[in-house]
Structure formats: C-alpha cells, structure tokens
Recover the amino acids of this structure.
C-alpha cells in the first residue's frame, strides 16, 4: 500500500459499508447459483437419485419426516455426507471470493471497490489470504446462530420467541449475537467483531489497476 493511502486512513460510514456488502452479497449469490448448477448436474443430482432409488427399494412409499424408520434410514445414508459436503463447498465459494479479493492488489472485493473502500490491517498494511479468509469466516457467526435457533424451534415445535428466550443458553447466545452484529455502532472506527479479531479496518481509497492480482510476499 502506498504512503498516500497509509496517511489517509479514516473510518467509513455504515451506509457505504452496507452498500459494498449488498453488492458483494449479490455477486456471491450469483456465483453460488452457478456453482450449484454445475456441481449439482455433475454430482449431487445423481446422488439424490440414488437415495430415492434406495429408499423406494426399501420402503416403497414416499419419505415422511415423522416416520422414525424413514428418518433413521436417511441419517445412515451416504446422501447426508454428500449434502453436508455440498453445503460446505457452497459456503467456500463466498470465502474464496472474499479472501482472494481482500488480500489481492485491490485490497477490496468488487463491492468495496465500486464504493471506493479498502480492507486493510490497522497499521495500513494489506491482509494475507488467510487473514482475509478468517475475517469472512467470522462474519458468518450470526448466521450460524440463526440456523441453530431455527433448527431448535423446529425440533421443539415452538415459537421463535420461545426458542430464543426459553432457556438461559439460547438467551445468552442471542444477546451475544446482537452485540456481535451491532458493536460497529459504538466502535471508534466502526469496526465489527471480526474486524477487531483480525485486526483490520475498512477505509476509503482505491489501489491497484486492472485485474486483482495475488500479492507477492
């Protein structure tokens, strides 16, 4: 990063940061849809067909989530591992997008670059690929909590409010998640939790020309 960028490190508004995130969410969403279409047609669809064939050969009736024998068959079938791996790869698409671009010669994703923003270390240096990867991974923590609560709600067959407040563990996790999401409102440089953990901040600026390249060490 050049001296001019280092000398003009200032926090950015939540509006700009939100605008950049919105653009990136759209781009990553399109990349994930493309990935799912390709990998689904080449691999996952065949695995699903095999599961339905195996299930039909054993039971000869449609699958029912309230039938314990059906659920046990599903949980022991290879399709579970296939779908978990598929989900992991879908998440990995976003992680690679953010990690590569935020650690590249741009120091920014496409959304950040459009909004004139950089993601840099607190001292103005560029992030490494793994620092950028870790930064994105930590940003998913609130989503993990939301998935957990929805699964808990479905299992207990209760309302979302009761799932959140029904026990001390869920309530504590819920409050921690709110702090995780909203702490940037009170931090001096509008840092999020994942910014603070990785030791980086978002600033105004634009560096690098042409296609974003991997930085030489």
């Amino acid at each position: 990063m050049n001296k001019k960028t280092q000398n003009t490190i200032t926090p950015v508004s939540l509006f700009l940061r939100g605008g950049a995130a919105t653009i990136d969410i759209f781009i990553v969403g399109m990349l994930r849809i493309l990935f799912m279409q390709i990998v689904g047609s080449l691999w996952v669809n065949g695995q699903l067909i095999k599961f339905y064939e195996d299930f039909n050969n054993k039971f000869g009736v449609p699958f029912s989530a309230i039938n314990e024998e059906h659920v046990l068959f599903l949980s022991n079938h290879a399709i579970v591992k296939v779908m978990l791996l598929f989900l992991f790869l879908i998440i990995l698409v976003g992680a690679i997008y953010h990690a590569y671009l935020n650690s590249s010669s741009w120091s920014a994703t496409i959304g950040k670059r459009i909004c004139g923003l950089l993601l840099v270390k607190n001292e103005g240096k560029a992030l490494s690929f793994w620092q950028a990867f870790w930064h994105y991974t930590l940003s998913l923590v609130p989503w993990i909590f939301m998935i957990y609560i929805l699964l808990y709600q479905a299992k207990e067959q209760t309302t979302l409010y009761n799932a959140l407040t029904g026990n001390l563990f869920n309530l504590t996790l819920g409050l921690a998640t709110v702090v995780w999401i909203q702490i940037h409102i009170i931090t001096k440089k509008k840092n999020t939790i994942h910014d603070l953990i990785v030791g980086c901040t978002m600033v105004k600026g634009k560096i690098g020309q042409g296609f974003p390249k991997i930085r030489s060490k």
In short: The longest strand covers residues 117-121. Residues 3-139 form one domain.
